[in-house]
């Protein structure tokens, strides 16, 4: 899928309230939605909202995210998924009263990497590129400059699901708007090319 329409995706844990209009998907999260496996907390949750688009073994995907985070662990961004035990989610997450750039990489167990969000978290873009077993996550405020958020090994698979993701483990009712979704061949840019 190339372009900004979001038709053709398949929901994992379809939210009770959502709509799509002219390439904008609006979601109101369900209570207790989350993605996590084991680490620290000892539980596994696979109840977060994820609108997945099937892709091949290599791709670049990006999405614009608008949300108003209010409660602990409110989160929205992008997800790349092989199956319930191998995935990554990345975006903005509220932790200890502060908006954080957050990524959770899961290969059997989840890790969690955070950094203080240096921009207005209510409107940003996420990009994920997968190529030859490497995952590259980038974040952008304006859709022009894309600093690196994370570079990591990622499970090799013949295909992936990729698309918008949001969760509210502690409540219901986070309103999220996803737009400008695109899916293409890997961009093939140098690691320090921020365009």
From TrEMBL:
<protein>
    <submittedName>
        <fullName>DUF1349 domain-containing protein</fullName>
    </submittedName>
</protein>
<dbReference type="InterPro" id="IPR009784">
    <property type="entry name" value="DUF1349"/>
</dbReference>
<dbReference type="InterPro" id="IPR015987">
    <property type="entry name" value="UCP022704"/>
</dbReference>
<dbReference type="InterPro" id="IPR013320">
    <property type="entry name" value="ConA-like_dom_sf"/>
</dbReference>
<dbReference type="Pfam" id="PF07081">
    <property type="entry name" value="DUF1349"/>
</dbReference>
């Amino acid at each position: 899928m190339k372009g900004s329409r979001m038709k053709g995706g398949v929901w994992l844990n379809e939210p009770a309230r959502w709509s799509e209009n002219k390439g904008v998907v609006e979601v109101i999260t369900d209570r207790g939605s989350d993605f996590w496996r084991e680490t620290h907390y000892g539980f596994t949750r696979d109840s977060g909202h994820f609108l997945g688009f099937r892709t091949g073994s290599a791709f670049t995907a990006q999405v614009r995210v608008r949300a108003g985070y209010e409660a602990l662990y409110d989160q929205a961004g992008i997800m790349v998924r092989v199956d319930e035990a191998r995935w990554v989610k990345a975006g903005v997450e509220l932790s200890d009263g502060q908006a954080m750039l957050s990524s959770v990489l899961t290969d059997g167990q989840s890790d969690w990497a955070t950094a203080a969000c240096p921009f207005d978290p209510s409107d940003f873009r996420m990009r994920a590129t997968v190529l030859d077993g490497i995952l590259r996550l980038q974040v952008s405020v304006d859709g022009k400059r894309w600093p690196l958020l994370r570079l990591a090994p990622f499970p090799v698979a013949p295909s992936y699901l990729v698309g918008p993701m949001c969760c509210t483990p502690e409540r219901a009712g986070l309103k999220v708007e996803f737009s400008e979704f695109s899916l293409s061949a890997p961009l093939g840019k140098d690691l320090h090319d921020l365009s």
